[in-house]
Backbone:
């Protein structure tokens, strides 16, 4: 007999149960994407990168996307915009770091085999493609710490898939070391990352000063002239620059500083700029 998916009412009851136990909860719409939490931000209109787990820059009255929307307040969960959200919600998510937890997201069989060999046993929850290993203790989140392994804790969210099996262990140093060993994203004040040379070993065409300068100037202009969805525009611009110049070593700290400065002039914080740059690099595999 085929198992039926949870009803919308079940999602709401699950979220309220999590909140009552001190776990900040939130609804997810299709494709694991969070909802905006106010009318102004409906359909991500304020430019928050909710699909990339980063809250938008809105003040309505506070960040209302992604992990920042998760709450233990039953009134927020069951009323207002979220009352409507549960009618179309596809899943429930939670903010692990807000509950003092860390989730090691193992995305495939190889990652699971590695965890069983190198990490202490803990509470384990099956996922669509792998497993979540949940530990007591919060830490910084990090994606791609090794093939098929992400860490979801502070400033991140994870789908709620049930309590799983096993006894939850304390967060081991081995997991913290995974995030500590992950290279920091480049940005103002950080050294540029060395990237592979073009295939064939020929001289990179982007080293032509005019070509590179035109690209950076156009990127600055695109950010400066945007009037809406600033956060999304910044990310898309960073993605475009990195897709063209990110693999050949052309970009210098001065170029990156110019892009970050343009974004911050439009109201972006330094953290949002760094997150956007890091997410763009991750998407491109840099």
Residues:
């Amino acid at each position: 007999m085929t198992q039926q998916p949870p009803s919308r009412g079940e999602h709401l009851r699950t979220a309220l149960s999590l909140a009552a136990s001190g776990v900040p909860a939130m609804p997810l719409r299709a494709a694991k994407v969070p909802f905006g939490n106010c009318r102004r931000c409906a359909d991500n209109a304020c430019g928050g990168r909710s699909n990339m787990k980063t809250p938008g820059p809105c003040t309505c009255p506070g960040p209302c996307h992604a992990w920042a929307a998760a709450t233990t307040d039953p009134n927020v969960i069951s009323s207002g915009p979220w009352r409507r959200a549960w009618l179309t919600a596809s899943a429930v998510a939670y903010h692990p770091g807000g509950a003092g937890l860390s989730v090691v997201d193992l995305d495939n069989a190889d990652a699971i085999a590695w965890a069983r060999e190198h990490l202490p046993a803990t509470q384990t929850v099956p996922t669509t493609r792998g497993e979540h290993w949940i530990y007591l203790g919060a830490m910084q989140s990090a994606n791609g710490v090794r093939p098929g392994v992400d860490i979801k804790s502070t400033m991140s969210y994870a789908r709620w898939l049930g309590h799983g099996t096993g006894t939850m262990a304390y967060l081991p140093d081995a997991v913290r070391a995974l995030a500590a060993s992950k290279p920091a994203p480049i940005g103002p004040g950080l050294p540029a990352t060395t990237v592979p040379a073009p295939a064939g070993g020929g001289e990179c065409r982007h080293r032509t000063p005019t070509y590179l300068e035109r690209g950076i100037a156009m990127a600055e202009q695109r950010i400066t002239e945007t009037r809406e969805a600033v956060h999304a525009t910044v990310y898309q611009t960073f993605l475009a620059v990195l897709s063209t110049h990110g693999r050949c070593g052309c970009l210098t700290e001065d170029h990156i500083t110019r892009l970050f400065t343009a974004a911050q002039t439009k109201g972006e914080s330094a953290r949002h700029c760094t997150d956007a740059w890091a997410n763009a690099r991750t998407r491109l595999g840099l």
